[in-house]
Specification:
The protein is of the alpha/beta class and about 150 residues long. It has one domain (about 10-150): 2,3-Dihydroxybiphenyl 1,2-Dioxygenase, domain 1 (Roll), CATH 3.10.180. It has helices at about 20-30, 70-75, 90-95, 135-150, and strands spanning about 10-15, 30-40, 45-50, 55-60, 80-85, 100-110, 115-120, 125-130.
Amino acid sequence: MSGPKALSLMPYIAVRDGAAAIDFYTRAFGAVEKYRLEDPADGRIGHAEISLGSSTLMLSDEYPDFGALAPESLGGSPVKLHLYVEDVDTVFAGAIKAGGVELRPVKDQFFGDRSGMLQDPFGHTWFLASLKEEVSPEEMQKRWAEGLAG
């Protein structure tokens, strides 16, 4: 096992059932479990890491005494996770089949992605996207302004 490279961002989420979350992310997004540390007293996951492509997502079960609370305990989460995949339509459909809930259907976006949004069974919101077109920031601004104007 090697450590993170300098200046790496790795999201860390808390869930109510870490083992089930790892299973969902594996089935829905093709994640690969690196390892997990289980609490011998109650089986909760104190820490786990999964790979999503070249990225790492860290997670744990809830541990309120450490401030690790799942979205259900907090009334939701303002944080969204964004995952680029090769084929957004296929991965999105698989995530819904695995238990995700569609919040926004997959469609072509003004900024060059084809993307959709779903909520996983643990209360976390995910944008899934595939790049369709390279769009400059200036062109994005123009398209966004045109879209807002109606």
